[in-house]
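Handoff note, outgoing to incoming analyst
You'll be picking up this chain. Sequence as last confirmed:
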Amino acid sequence: MPLLTTVIGSYPKPVNLKTPDWFKIPQNQYAPTAYSGFCEGVSAEELENEVKLAMEKVIGEQIEDGIDIITDGEVRRENYVFHICRHLQGFNMDDPILKTYRNGALTARLPRITGKIDSKTDVNWAAEEWKSAQDMSRVPVKYTIPGPMTVIGSTHNEYYADVKELSSDLVKVINKQIIGLFKAGCRQIQLDEPVMVRNPDIAMDYGIDHASRCFEGVGLGVTKTVHLCCGYPLYLDQEGYEKADRKIYFQLAEKLDNSCFDAISLEDAHQHNDLSLLQLFKKSTIVFGAIKIADSRIETMEEIRDRLQEALRHIPADRLIVSPDCGLAHLPHDVMRQKVTNMVRAAKSLP
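Most recent structure output, in case you need it:
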């Protein structure tokens, strides 16, 4: 049976969708106020219609390209973290602060945490978004949601004296959305936690445990994935961007493997790992990053296949899923389609 394929989250936004895009504006210039201002100038109904048109295109292309487990392309999100912040009490999106973060790799205007984190309403907005996408697709749609460490690492805390308490409050609101996804029928749920690789001491202390708690109450039949890439650059083809140290994967592997997760999503294309890493995962499926998401060079099918064959020397084929390193939204549309096509062709030619 060929190797399964998936994508991680974001997809280049179709041209019909005019929302401000964190991937198209230099991240050190983007502010959440841009999206807030845009939404004030358009009706909710008009924006939702444009989002649905964009989703239809993105979903149709992924299916056409042969992806087995797709996403909605995160087209309704300005970026993968700020979207959840807008649904929660305690975040100030209107007066962001300029902050250096990701171990000094980035400087950007970030939302401020100025009150206790809680849900704004009882509405399960994640389930509604997933259902809207799944209704358009004949293949499974995976829903992605950022985890506590990554939300904390992408915002500025001014309220909580104890960051572990902040993390616990985020677990509660994320868990509520994930339970709603499960009840709605979603069977592919991914928690995005790249900040674990930036802060392994916190991950080992309580971060992995808190990420696992986000899935409490989720029944059988759901594939629970945690995604840990080594970081987005500021822009396409950026040289010298300070990624997280890929050796941290070795430090986290055993605890991740013994957590509640069914699948662990790792970057390998931008930074090749020592593939003995895969042998540390005794139970988990590995979602293996096989194409670069911030490099315009198109990997050939043969080079992707060669790397996958190397990986298969360290992990069984039934525990290897092929994916990009991370979201695809940095890439020009035509480049992205060619990369994904080559990735799928390589995966389907194996084992």
